[in-house]
Amino acid sequence: MAQKRKIPHTFVIVFAFIVIAAVSTWLVPGGEYSRTIKTLPDGTSKTVIVADSYKVVSSQPQTWQIFAAFFEGFVARADIIVFILLIGGAFWILNESKAIDVAIISFIRITKNLDKGRIMKLIGVNNIIMILIMIIFSFFGSVFGMSEETIAFIIIFVPLAISMGYDSIVGICLCFFAAGLGLAGATLNPFTIGIAQGLSDIPLYSGLEYRIFCWIVITAIGITFILIYAAKIRKDPRKSPVYEEDQYWRNKREEGATTIKYHTPLSAWIIFAILLIVMIIYSVVYHSSILDIGQLKISMPVIPVLTGLFAFTGVLALRKSVHFFILDLFMFTILFLVTGVMGYHWYVMEIATLFFVMGISSGIAMSYSPNKITELFLAGVKDILSAAIVVGMAGGIIIILQNGKVIDPMLHGVANSMRDVGKYGSLSIMYAIQTMINVVITSGSAKAALTMPIMAPFSDLINVSRQATVMAYQLGDGFTNLITPTSATLVGVLGVAKIPLEKWIKWVWPLILILIVVGFLLLIPAITMDLNGF
Question: How many domains does the chain have?
Fold first, then answer.
C-alpha cells in the first residue's frame, strides 16, 4: 500500500518562501524610487515615492542572508511576536480559571432554549449568532481596520465553534476572516482609506456611499460562504480538513468539562476594588474621550460610563461566582480595547498590556499564588510559541525582498504595463497590481505610501477618477491578506488556532478567488456610473 505523503511543516513552507524570495533577487535587476515626506490632511506625515524618480541601482543578490533573515524578521515583527506571547500567557491564566468553560456552557444552554421556537428552528439560532458576530467584526475591520487585534479572540471563538459542532476554521472565520472582509470593504478606516485619499489629494472619506454598498456586498458573500461550510461541518464534523488538528481543542474541552465549583473568594473582591479605584482615577483624568469614526469626531464620557457599568456588573457577577466576574472583566477588556483604538490610537503594545493586566487580575481573583500565576503564564507562552516563531520567519521574507532591492523594480515594471491600454484596462491592471503587491507588502498604510503617489497622477492621464484608483487600492489591499504567508496576522491566527498553513490555503483559496472577482466587478461602476464623490 502506498505510503501517505507527509505534508511539510509550516516552518518548512515559510522557509521555502524565504528561499524563493532570495532567488528572485538574482533574477530581478535592482532599482529604487526616491522618497520624500508628505503631510496628510489630518496633520500626520508619511514617506511617499516621488513620481518619475525610478532609477536602476546595483543588484543585491541574497545568499547567506536567508539565514540572517530569521533574526531580522524577528526584529521587524517584534511587536506582533511579543503581542502573541503576552496574549497566550494571559489567556492561559484565564482558561485555567474555567471562566471560558462556564461561558460556553451557559451559551449553549441559552441557544438550546432559543431553538425551541418555530421561527428560530427554521432560521437556526447558530446561524443568527454567527451572522451577528461576523457583522460586528466586519464592521470593526471596515471602520478602524481591526486585524492584529483578532489574534486575541481566537482562543475564545475556536473552542466556541467546536462546542457548537463546527471546527477551528469556522472559529477563526467568526472574527479574523470577518474583520478581513471589513478591511477589504473599508468605509472609514483611517489606516487605508484615510491615507490613500490623503496621498491622492482628494477629500477624506469622500465616496462613502458606494463604499458602504461594497462593504455590504463583500460581507454578505463571505458570510454566506462560511455559513454553507459551517452547515456541512455540523452535519458531519469528519469532513473538516482540520478534524485531526481540532483534537487538541476537543481534548481541552473535555478537560474543562469537570465539575466546576462556583464560589467567590475574598481575593476577587479585592482585585475588583483595586481595578475600580484605578478606573475612577482614569475617569477623572480622562473625563471625556474623542472617538474617531472616519472623519467624524465624537466627544463622549466613555471611560466614566464604562467605570460606572463595571462597578454595577462587577458586584452582580461577584455575588454569583468568580467565574462570572472574570467573564465580566474580559468583556470590559474588549470595551476598553475599542475605546483605546478609536479614541487614543492604541496599537499592539497597549492592547497586549491590557490583556496582560486582564490575565494577572484573573489569576488574583482565583486566589492563585504569584508562583502559580507565573507558571500558568509561562505555560501559555510555551503553548503559543510556535505561532510567534512563524510570525518572525514570515517577516524574513519581506527583509530578503527589501534588502535585495527588488520591490521597487517590480512596482515600476507593472506600472509601465498600464500605458496605452485605456481606462478600463488600466484600472484592471491597477487592481491586479495592488492585489499582487499585497502578497508581499501586507501593511495597508505602507502599500498606500508605496503605490498611491504613482497611481493617482497616472489616473489623471487616462481620465480615471482618483477615487476609482483609491478603490482599486482598497479592494486589492484586503483579500490577499487572508491567504498570504507574509501576513504576520494570518500566520499568528493560524498558529494560535493550530491550523496548518497549507490546509488553510487549500480551504480558503476558492473564496478568495470569488472575492477577487467580485472586487473587480465592484470597480466597474466607478468608471461607468456617476457616483457621488467619484
Answer: 2
User: Residues 286-304: pLDDT tens digits?
Assistant: 988 888 766 678 889 999 9
**In the predicted structure, residue 282 carries a pLDDT above the cut 70:** yes
149, exposed or middle or buried, with CB in 10 Å at 0-12, 13-18, 19+?
A: buried
Residue 428 lies in a domain: yes
Beta carbons of 506 and 241 less than 8 angstroms apart: yes
Same domain, 191 and 233: yes
User: CA 79, CA 350: separation in Å to the nearest integer?
Assistant: 11
Q: How far is CA 479 from the centre of its chain?
A: 12
Higher pLDDT pick, 414 / 286: 286
Cell of 513: 478567488
Give the span between the Cα atoms of 447 and 211, in whole angstroms.
20
Contact 250, 162 (CB under 8 A): yes
* The model's pTM: 0.75
Contacts of 75 (CB under 8 A, 6+ apart): none
Selection from 204, 224, 166 nearest residue 295 by Cα: 204
Residue 365 has a pLDDT of 95
